[in-house]
Amino acid sequence: MRASLIQIAVEEGESVESRRSRAAALVREQADAADLVVLPELWTTGAFAYEEFADEAESLDGPTAEAMAKAASDAGVWLHAGSIPERASSDGGSALYNTSLVFSPSGELVASYRKIHRFGFDKGEAVLMAAGEDLVTVRLPETTLGVATCYDLRFPELFRGLVDAGAETLVIPAGWPERRRAHWTLLAQARAVENQAFVLACGTAGTHAGVPQAGHSIVVDPWGEVLAEAGRGEEVLTVDFDPAMAAVTREQFPALKDRVLGLRPPRR
Fold it and tell me: Which residue in 72, 63, 53, 60 sits closest to 20, CA to CA?
């Protein structure tokens, strides 16, 4: 299987419409070059451009979804289109979510994932966006994807849940800052090793609202070996990997079978 991670640059001065068209063109370029294409988190606005979330929020059938569906269909690829600021209406109200979209090679929206762990503590995404509640997996012919987003990478229990749901390949779009790049690489390898799964982690290049981005999209195998890693600038990182290796690794080194759940708290 071949995956292409599109580490698109998000820079001030480029309109969302322009970047949307550019991203769609980059996806189309992967026709006959990849089976799975991945975009980063909040690439339409920038993950730290908080003031733009509400203005640029859209529905799951909005302009970004429409453009990505068409690009996936034109290229004939599975497309994890990164995430968008989603505006969802419920009970007469309105909420924002950081929502990932996954399209089939026919352009069908087959899954959406609302980010569960929101970054910012008491500001930014953490207060502007609502939290998702559901784990999401997507079955491809060659593998089952487990879907997570950026800050989720710091919470291993989420990935255990994805593995329990059948995930063998973990896909993580992100807008990760340069100042914590060492954590990005370390955590991507840790999630791969502890879950005996492939990790495809796609970041952004550029600067979001004054916050330099780490770039360094990375693909890690179930043993923690880095198969490919990007630099800081915009680029397409393409790598071949064998999804069956996850099952083989779990059979050869069956650590997941030794998980002990429901441990009692220590006696006082």
Answer: 63
pLDDT in tens, 191-214: 999 999 999 999 999 999 999 999
Alpha helices in the chain (DSSP H): 16-28, 53-56, 63-75, 125-128, 156-164, 181-195, 244-252
pTM of the model: 0.96
Per CATH, domain 2-255 is 3.40.1190.20: no
Q: How far apart are the first and last CA of the chain?
A: 52
Annotation says 123 is catalytic: no
Q: Are 189 and 182 in contact (CB under 8 A)?
A: no
Active-site hit among 56, 86, 125, 150: 150
Active site residue 168: no
Q: Is 150 a catalytic residue?
A: yes
Write out the two tokens for 255: 């650590």
Confidence of residue 267 (pLDDT cuts 50, 70, 90): confident
- Tokens standing for residue 248: 């083989």
Cα(153)–Cα(171) distance, rounded to whole angstroms?
10
Q: Which of 85, 81, 15 is nearest to 47 (CA)?
A: 85
Eight-class DSSP state of 263: P
